[in-house]
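During the first year of the project, the team set up a workflow for recording each protein of interest as an amino acid sequence followed immediately by a discrete structure-token representation. This format lets reviewers and collaborators read both layers of information side by side without switching files. As required by the reporting guidelines, we include two representative entries from the current panel. The first entry is reproduced here exactly as it appears in our internal archive.
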Amino acid sequence: MVSFRKSKNNQLNSVLVSVTGESCDDEAVQLAYKLLDHQNGQLYIVYVIEVERSLPVDAEISAATAKAEQVLKRSEEISKSFHGKIHAEMLQSRKAGPALVHEAVDRMVDAMIISVPYSEQYGSFSMGETASYVLEHSPCKVILWREPISTK
């Protein structure tokens, strides 16, 4: 089980942020580095490419890889003022939820931030499969960062 550790100033030592290219990613990354110990903190920024079952899980998917690189680069730029260690990586998996939980366990993070765009399914709010899986299976603290309801 991953323990929830705090530094002396009540900030976290490690946070994993899942980014997807949605507008709420930027604020989730900013929240992560605000929660972290700025001298010793570890910020993990993860983009998961979901690979269709018809392809090998390690298949080269050029368009998805290009998008992932762009999203990760933007997230790294947003966190430039953070003085701790930043690790940005792209993963490929069948489903993002299990990949994120596995990564959180491997990295032994104190918390994970999942950004969720506001969306509705059948007239009701839906946080989506990934956030639901992470909330159910993550051994660490989980912060769900939902964007505001659109006033379109």
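The second entry, processed by the same pipeline in the following quarter, appears below.
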Amino acid sequence: MISAWRFQPGPVTRILLPWIGMAILVSAGHGRSEACTLSPDHAGLIFPVERVDPAWTCRLQTIIQNHTTESKLGPIRTALSEPLYRHLLDHPPFTADVIRRLHLGRYRSEARGPGRFWGDDGAGTKGIVELVYEDPTSRIYFLEGTHEGRLFPHVTGKAVVFLRTGVLRDENSDEATDSILVAYTKLDNRFLSGLISLLHPLVSGIVTSRLQKGVETVDRLGVVMRLDPERVMAELTNPPALPGHHVAFLKQALRGRQNSDKGSLDGSSIP
């Protein structure tokens, strides 16, 4: 009887096999990334998706192409200058602290790595937000989280949010920031996703309301900073202490706004 041939790896082969396996996985991953593409057009806005890290492309494409809901919000105007708006956008934990201290909301946030944050809006929605891409006018975010509500006790899902911002002057010649958000949401629960024709208005309404609530809260923060900077400064100095560099930046921005207002009233220009 002829026995079946069996491969007996030698010492060198045993060392190389794991590396060969890793190479196959990496090359397969590159192949999938190259096969995945993102449309630059989202709700009529063009985003530089070609600059997105290829490692993200397939993850975003899956959500966008198989989304449960698509929402567009804006433009929404916030009473914040571009530097202040970007600083608050870049540092969610600090922004959430300021919002809570001024009693504008119950937001909480924690840093979980570079460009990665955990957040809780205090109204049933919490999860992880990751910054995928940014430039002076555009941002792309990946979100993964849960929503607790009366109708659906526990819903999990993922989302891709495209953000476009623009700077302008309002009717009082104060600098303001306009925001437009386009969000694609994909529920993890197949049963709920299968009821899309029935659930779309509800789920879309939840997503839109959460996005709108966040932007409008930031706008209310900007209004308070503009109308009552002394109160904001006082809250910033109350214990527990907030990060010093954030407080210093915000105080400088508020002082700059006060000086700008005085200059406008005096008819003199700001150097």
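For the second entry, the following points were noted during internal review. The first strand starts at residue 41 and ends at 42. The first helix runs from residue 11 to 35. Both points are flagged for discussion at the upcoming steering committee meeting.
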